[in-house]
């Protein structure tokens, strides 16, 4: 009788060990699959981050802040190289506060009840600015040249275009 109890205990222990082994194997396989999925996701995100870095680099090519040749143009002046872009942008946005119907830089009159304003701009280099404008319904773009006279920024409209709602 005693030997049968030991035999049943032995069989029960073997079954318990087999159960524990199979359960541990399933858990490890589950963790391995989850880990592989996370590693694939991390690789995908790394690719996305690299694409964003590349896109950011492409967008920063045509700005004065990343153009040392353009900034060196201002070395012999009293102007602070680090504030050139801010000064040009401030002067450009200050043209949005005008009286009358004609914007000082936008060659189109508003065809709505609102005034034409410059929305966004990019200082390309030491001579050029690209800007867009709108009156809320119609919009367009400007190609401006600029120069400093002391602390004052003077703009000259080089070229412009107006889009309609149809895009032409």
Tell me what you see in this structure:
The chain has three helices and four strands; from the N terminus they run H-H-H-E-E-E-E. The chain is α+β, with helices and mostly antiparallel strands. The chain folds into two domains: 1-60; 64-163, no CATH class. Strands 1-2-3-4 form a four-stranded antiparallel β-sheet.
Short description:
This protein has 168 residues and is an alpha+beta fold.
Fraction in helix: 40-55%
Structural class: alpha+beta
SS element count, helices: 3
Largest sheet: 4 strands, antiparallel
What's the layout of helices and strands?
Elements: H1 2-60, H2 68-72, H3 84-94, E1 117-123, E2 128-134, E3 139-149, E4 152-163
Antiparallel strand pairs: 1-2, 2-3, 3-4
Label this structure with key terms.
2 domains; 3 helices; 168 residues; 45% helix; alpha+beta
